[in-house]
Amino acid sequence: MTAIAFAQPDAAILARRDAIVAGLAALVPSDVLITNPDECRAYETDAFTAYRRMPMAVLLPRSTQEVAAIMAFCQEQGVNVVARGAGTSLAGGAIPQEDAVVIGVSRLNRVLEFDRPNRTLKVEAGITNLAVSAAVAPDGFFYAPDPSSQLACTIAGNIAMNSGGAHCLKYGVTTNNVLGATVVLADGSIVELGGDAMDMPGLDLLGLIVGSEGQLGIVTEAILRVLPLAEGARPVLFGFDTSEDAGACVAAIIGAGIVPVAMEFMDKPAIEICEAFAKAGYPLDVGAMLIIEVEGSDDEIDFTLQKIVEIANGHGVKVIKQSRSATETAQIWKGRKSAFGATGRIADYLCMDGTIPTSQLPYVLKRMSEIVAGYGLRVANVFHAGDGNLHPLILFNANDPEELAKAEMAGADILTLCVEVGGCLTGEHGVGIEKRDLMPKQFTREELDQQMRVRAVFDPQWRLNPSKVFPLENRWMPQ
Amino acid sequence: MQTQFAPERLADSQMAESEKILRSCVHCGFCTATCPTYLLEGDELDSPRGRIYLIKDMLENDKPASADVVKHVDRCLSCLSCMTTCPSGVHYMHLVDHARAHIEKTYRRPLADRFIRAVLAAILPYPNRFRAALALGRLGQPLAPVLAKLPGGERLKSMLALVPQKLPRAPKPTQQNLAAAKKGRVALLAGCAQQVLDPEINAATTRLLNRLGIEIADTKDTGCCGALVHHMGKEHQGHVAAKRAIDAWWPEIEAGKLDAIIITASGCGTTIKDYGFMLRDDPDYAHKAKAVSELALDITQYLATLDLPKGEPREEVIAYHSACSMQHGQQIRDEPKNLLKTAGFTVKDVPEGHICCGSAGTYNILQPGFATRLRDRKVKNIERVAPDLIATGNIGCMTQIGTGTDIPIIHTIQVLDWAYGGPKPAALG
After folding, report:
1. Domain made up of A11-104: CATH architecture
2. Which Gene Ontology molecular-function terms are recorded (chain A) (predicted)?
């Protein structure tokens, strides 16, 4: 169960636990600090439950100033800090460690300012992704990145992982939709990066923060770009005999220069799992399915769909089913967005997050099945096909340590395959601990060192989320 | 999720069931987003995922409940919003029921807490005692500010705040105007607190069903369905109540004379529909309990099968408040609204309608702080749609929301009875 190692806890810090906790207690109101082991346990993992570490304490501050005070204290005391949004990471990004405190931003969840003429929304970063869209929906706007966990995950977590989602094919990922951020740095200083417009003067430090997995600072506020809702949108289900046919169809659509707003792939096991939960009317007699959503005016939708249907026909599509109502559309997306959780009905799973060039889809789909079958396991595939972001779910039994080990090995093989065909280890879930030890497959030693030099500018002592992203060996430290 | 139960502990059927539930949870965290207490607190310990984790640790390691675990489990409303949200099908209700029973067995509550729970369990399920207690409560209302200063006094104060100024008279519903052509025969749960607080609900049900040609079987008194004590972890008392209700209905069921058992309080409906599970290991009652659960229907579910005629458009705008036990516990969503629309009303959904009003059985007495914050949030959302009246299908919500707004709040069945020829509900003046 412990194939992935954490750094040895710092014995000196553990020995000073009581003093550290007392110091924190003097700093914040009592209901901000959780120290009782029974209670801390609920924070020992995220959605990557194969790994668990008890934190020394958990803090749930209510303001940027409180976050700053805690960070300054931890820096002074040499205590590690693990930031947490909603704890929905599938890569273990929010898993704590014994010599660290958790700083959770879930209470920083207010909408601060809607600048309608400039189409920006300022929020506290602990607000959930879906609550952002809900806040501007009455005015006809939405926030584009829509990770499947958008109901629960926070903007802070989205920024940390540079999250995408089904609709980022057209609208880009988090980094394309965040304009500014208030960040608390390791020493407790508060900085504002970016601003309220697309192009701000100076170095793009905000671009550095997005996707930094809680290693450069803690984001407490963000200015987001919101977009006008399309006049209409229509998802269509395309059923194929095989995954390879569906994969080839995706590559052909992208190759033809068509950009639907979303293009999602599900294979037979995934279709069956999601249909059982969402009753969305997915075709059950096909080997694979694409959900392709097109938006705009009715004419525009019809025009684009016609071109897509022609391409699909050329790839042996068996079933084409259009959503006929808002309710059907909602059900279709509910099924897709609940895919991971719904898989829990039949088995435990590891969810991979590799990306590949879309032209490689048919080959990679075939190889993934072979890899997983080679370990005697099953796989359900559900992913963002349009931008080549794969989410194979490797099914296993969590109560069988041998199966977990096999699932982890299959996962590593799949991600290695992604890198080999010209893709990368993670599309949107982040490296976390899950993919940390695979980083040398993606990067050379020099490339890793260079990234760590950048990291060290913000956190020279490796105090922020220290066990993640970079392999524990050969860590670059400033001289 | 991985579990680590010692094999011998899984011989216990309830433990085995809980293990199965825990195994189905993948810890995705979706449930946190729709949990009322997480919305208020932002602390995972006050969310389903956090509670599941606390319960897992307690059951897995056979630990007696600690004060901290009890605090967070007690704060759970059992609104079951998490079950609607959960993509993995985690049966949180059965897990938290098990946890509450475990707490009751292994944890000694502070004296004031034990006292108030004992009082509630000894009074609420018994209509005569409850009626007497309400009369006393009205006398006690002036003392509320003083009582609030005693240990546990906040709860006494909130209990007194819920006492209505006057109680409606309680005529026993009689069958009348039974349409000539008999179309069906049902049993009607008389219930406990509801028949004291608002006897008109079952009277309206009787009137409307009779007009539609449905006969109501004259069964023995069922007493309380057991939901109130069951939710306090008093498992044995809950089972005794369930068996009493089953015994009252059984002769009719055995003779094949019932089309349905009709329930007009959705909180009771959720529990009665779960009798089959609650008594699954009882050799004498398992099959009877299952039969009762299968026959149990909310009044709106039953009416939806009767094809009521379309009414002329009416001017009243109704905000439909779906009780948690209706939308989450029983997954009944459209039937009540469709019936009201068919009757001619304009029906509006309440924004954030999936979040509890804070009533939740005895929750508004035991957790007054959370309950009041949730009530105020609910009232604000209801007022945003500016309705003429609020319709809902659960007496608990009616009492709770009624203390926070002047908009009349009326049981769905009374509104329907009115629309189909019955008297105008008194609350509408």
Report:
1. 2-Layer Sandwich (3.30)
2. FAD binding; oxidoreductase activity
Surface of A (374-403) touching B: CB under 8 A: 398-399
Question: Closest partner residue to A341 among B33, B53, B88, by Cβ?
Answer: B88
Mutation test of the interface with chain A: which of B3, B23, B24, B43, choosing the one with the most A Cβ atoms within 10 A?
B43
- Do A344 and B87 lie within an 8 Å CB cutoff? yes
The CATH number that domain A119-228 falls under is 3.30.465.10
Please indicate whether, in this complex, the C-beta atoms of B33 and A343 are within 8 angstroms of each other: no
Q: What is the DSSP letter of B327?
A: I
CATH topology of domain A347-420: Alpha-Beta Plaits (3.30.70)
Are B42 and A60 in contact (CB < 8 Å)?
A: yes
Tens digit of each residue's pLDDT (9 = 90 or more) over A304-350: 999 999 999 999 999 999 999 988 999 999 999 889 889 998 999 99
Q: How far is A312 from chain B (nearest CA, A)?
A: 31
**Residue bearing tokens 């509104």:** B415
Q: Is the pLDDT of residue A227 over 90?
A: yes
Does B40 reach chain A within 8 Å, measured CB to CB?
no
| Residue B78: partners with Cβ closer than 8 Å, 6 or more residues away | B93, B96, B231, B360, B361, B363
pLDDT reported for residue A1: 40
Which long-range contacts does A298-307 make (Cβ < 8 Å, 24+ apart)? A298/A232, A301/A232, A301/A233, A301/A234, A304/A258, A304/A260, A305/A234, A305/A236, A307/A256, A307/A258
A38 and B25 in contact by Cβ < 8 A?
no
Does residue B174 surpass a pLDDT of 70?
Answer: no
* Crossing angle of helices A401-420 and A361-374, rounded to 10°: 160
Per-residue b or e along B71-98, where b marks 16 or more CB atoms closer than 10 Å to that residue's CB = ebbbbbbbbbbbbbbbbbbbbbbbbbbb
Domain boundaries, chain A: 11-104, 119-228, 233-340, 347-420
A41 neighbourhood in chain B, CB within 8 Å? 53-54, 57
The Cα A334–Cα B178 span in angstroms is: 46
Residues 6+ apart with CB under 8 A from A104: A43, A58, A59, A60, A83, A84, A85, A87, A126, B42, B44
Stretch B76-86: mean pLDDT, rounded?
97
Q: Between B25, B33, B53, which is nearest A344 by CB?
A: B25
| pLDDT per position as a tens digit, A82-106 | 999 999 999 999 999 999 999 999 9
Interface test with A, best of B3, B41, B44, B60 (most A CBs within 10 A): B44
Q: Closest partner residue to B28 among A36, A50, A340, by Cβ?
A: A340
This prediction's pTM: 0.94
Q: Do domains A11-104 and A119-228 have the same CATH topology?
A: no
Answer whether B2 touches A (CB < 8 Å): yes
Percent over 70 (pLDDT), chain A: 100
Q: Judging by DSSP bridges, how do beta strands A218-225 and A178-184 pair with one another?
A: antiparallel
Q: Is the pLDDT of residue B398 over 80?
A: yes
Of B43, B53, B88, the CB nearest to A41: B53
The per-residue pLDDT of chain B, averaged, comes to 94
The class level of CATH for A233-340 reads alpha beta
Flag if B57 and A38 touch (Cβ within 8 Å).
Answer: yes
Round to whole Å and give the CA distance between A374 and B221. Answer: 64
